[in-house]
Amino acid sequence: MTSFELRDRLHELLGDLLGTFSTGIPAIWVEPPAAPIGNAVGLACIIGRHKAMKKSETLSSNQLYQNYDWVVTLVQFDTSSTGCKKLDRALDILQRAFPNHRERALPFSEDSYPQITFLIEEHAVLNQRG
Amino acid sequence: MATLKFDLPKITTPLAHYEWGCDHAAITHNGAVMRSGTRIPPRPWCDVAVAETDLVQVFRKHYAATNSLQAAWELTAFELGDRFKDMISSERWQWDGITQRRNGETVGSPRNIVDTRELLESQSLELK
Lengths: 130, 128
Description:
heterodimer, A: 6-stranded mixed sheet, B: alpha+beta, two-stranded antiparallel ribbon, 5 helices, about 15% strand, elongated
């Protein structure tokens, strides 16, 4: 899976739950470049362009095994109860769609927007050139 | 009749629980969008330490030295704790721009996440 394939999948899954950036486009973004979060409305989904590598080792048959996470961040700019319910719903959808995941909710604070970091684990075996 | 008795060696505290008790630990680790408009990038020192440490190899080393599962487990947990602290102290974390820290230091990027040492010193480990 590439970051753009993941973006398309997440867009399909989250659909109407997503808010908008100030330009009016759906608030889903692969970064870098930085997501235009100024004046964003509702739920934003930010996807790290580069996977976070956890393990990479050469196998016996000139192949490379990789284990990595895609880092997806859900930020809810709407802090009303409706907004929080949408964040819960989005999380529920992602949990079902990506069973192999870890998640971290930012503790509630009046200084920050509700946020969940959702890590999607993938494995890959790559053929190495001789 | 002879009875063969074999007590399997076991680890009595099989969970290593690390905690960082300072207020900004989660924001520093996971990043955050602040209501002030500031965006704080994630600096996931736990993930990086775990990814860059071959824990099986560390355990094997301690087991070879102690010949005790329990001691090797505890020493592995302590060593991972040291790796977390190394990560916090490493100048490897990206941040846009220059910051005047509360400790008086002026830092650019990459930088460590030590600042007042609050995060570093709030780390605790409980084996249970």
